[in-house]
Design brief:
about 210 residues, mainly alpha, 12 helices, elongated
Length: about 210
């Protein structure tokens, strides 16, 4: 197998093949090797590595957490959404004020940064930032620039925070408008934070 330190010199298809080979070898990479992969030029390869590699430990997460926080202003929005999803999946501590700011857009987006940021917030509601958080979630709910799944998730988080029925009513409207929103809601309600052992679901959500 070729050396991972040659990744930047390889054609893209060869580099993808090597990353997959590295991940499938069931070998723990060193911190320096992971750091090299985080800083390769082809960001798609980093996303593949995040998806496929299974041997991260706590020291790796500290390194990656720092890397993500340093790249929250990156122009590659697809890669940014991948970074935020990784942080969500592994409970990393990402700059919360920056995540909240990423909820605001001036035009309809296709890169899923808003949804990724909402997923992070859904898993990490921090009441220290309650004023700005509610303000930006309300903005999503009221603005047609946002996709309906983003509006639904924003409303669900708002309900968790405030317990105000108007957010449930809006979710009902979204479901009535498009049944695909119901499937999205069902998937959200399967997540641990909505388990009835921890969260008192209203009758409407229990019946979904």
């Amino acid at each position: 197998m070729k050396n991972l330190f040659d990744l930047n010199k390889m054609p893209f298809k060869e580099a993808i093949k090597l990353v997959n080979e590295i991940c499938n070898k069931n070998i723990k990479l060193s911190l320096s090797e992971i750091n090299f992969i985080l800083n390769i030029n082809k960001k798609e390869l980093i996303s593949i590595f995040f998806d496929e590699y299974k041997f991260f430990n706590q020291k790796d997460f500290i390194l990656i957490e720092d890397f993500i926080n340093k790249n929250l202003d990156i122009k590659n929005k697809d890669f940014l959404s991948d970074l935020i999803y990784f942080a969500t999946d592994f409970g990393l501590d990402v700059n919360y004020e920056k995540i909240i700011s990423l909820l605001l857009i001036n035009e309809e987006e296709t890169e899923c940064v808003v949804l990724a940021s909402l997923e992070y917030i859904n898993n990490n509601v921090k009441f220290l930032y309650i004023e700005e958080l509610v303000k930006n979630l309300e903005h999503i709910r009221e603005n047609i620039l946002y996709h309906q799944n983003e509006q639904l998730l924003a409303s669900l988080v708002l309900f968790r925070i405030t317990n105000k029925i108007k957010y449930l009513d809006f979710i009902k409207e979204l479901i009535e408008y498009d049944k695909s929103n119901l499937e999205f809601l069902k998937n959200k309600l399967k997540e641990k934070m909505y388990n009835t052992d921890y969260f008192n679901l209203p009758d409407f959500l229990k019946s979904v």
